[in-house]
Amino acid sequence: MKFTKMQGIGNDYVYINCFEETVKDPSAVARFVSDRHFGIGSDGLILIRPSQVADCEMDMYNLDGSQGAMCGNGIRCVAKYVFDHGIVNKTSISIATKSGIKYVDLTVKDGKASLIRVNMGSPILQATQIPVVADTEQVIDAPIQVDGQEYHYTAVSMGNPHAIVYVEDTDSLDLAKIGPSFENHVNFPDRINTEFVQVLDKHTVKMRVWERGSGETLACGTGACAVAVASILNGHVSPDTPVTVKLLGGDLQIFWNRSENLVYMTGPAVTVFDGQIDLSFLGE
Ligand SMILES: N[C@@H](CCC[C@H](N)C(=O)O)C(=O)O
């Protein structure tokens, strides 16, 4: 099976062009290819499929084989893939996802897509829709007990669920310990992605993420959008200008247009290498 490894600020996935290839069991393929020792090495698997309703479809799977409804870093790479491979010959592209159709604009350099802006849609703040268990309609700066310690979190869905926790210093966190405790907390019936955020100034925040189904990754695009929304709701950053979100793998620019109630994410997408792998032992 042919594949392409791509990354968006270090959040790396194995991409399979399902205009040409067929994947029978994406969860099993995701678990195998993601393994950094026995597989290709990635945070998960993304299938690029034909779509009846958009220019193409993104179907994403985490490292543990679970399906994600949206992937911010992944969707920039999907847009780059379909443009660079001549599958879609325009710089404004629509991509169907499990959380609806997203619209993407590309900047082209030397014939290849480079900087990519995605209309990520409207943030979801209703606790029942995220979903989080809460006795209020929205969860903004609410207390939560995790591993016997009290934290405060804000809950936002960008098509997938995020808990945003503000901390003094992201560098000193033991994410491998607290990440799984947030992910599997009883308040989060579908598990959750958790962003730990340090506010740097009125326009800039720094974050580390523990992703549902993949563990700590170098970046999360939907997470960065959720962090920008939460940071505005909590009064940490200016609501009128884009927020620079600094992640371990690089920066994303996020703008929540409050009059449209739409979140825009701008960042790069990079092809790492193409390859071919024998997955016949998985029945593929
Ligand atoms: N890394 C992604 C999000 C991937 C899905 C997430 N782990 C989930 O299960 O919701 C991004 O860039 O948004």
From TrEMBL:
The active site is at 71, 71 (proton donor), 220 (proton acceptor). The record marks 162, 211 as: Could be important to modulate the pK values of the two catalytic cysteine residues. Belongs to the diaminopimelate epimerase family. Homodimer. This is Diaminopimelate epimerase. Gene3D superfamilies: Diaminopimelate Epimerase, Chain A, domain 1. Pathway: Amino-acid biosynthesis; L-lysine biosynthesis via DAP pathway; DL-2,6-diaminopimelate from LL-2,6-diaminopimelate: step 1/1. Catalyzes the stereoinversion of LL-2,6-diaminopimelate (L,L-DAP) to meso-diaminopimelate (meso-DAP), a precursor of L-lysine and an essential component of the bacterial peptidoglycan. Its main location: cytoplasm. Its EC number is 5.1.1.7. InterPro entries: DAP_epimerase_AS, DAP_epimerase_DapF. It is an enzyme of class 5 (isomerase). It is found in: Cytoplasm. Substrate binds at residues 11, 62, 72-73, 160, 193, 211-212, 221-222. HAMAP family: DAP_epimerase (MF_00197). It comes from Blautia ammoniilytica. It catalyses: (2S,6S)-2,6-diaminopimelate = meso-2,6-diaminopimelate. Keywords: Amino-acid biosynthesis, Cytoplasm, Isomerase, Lysine biosynthesis. One of its GO terms (molecular function) is diaminopimelate epimerase activity. It comes from the Bacteria.
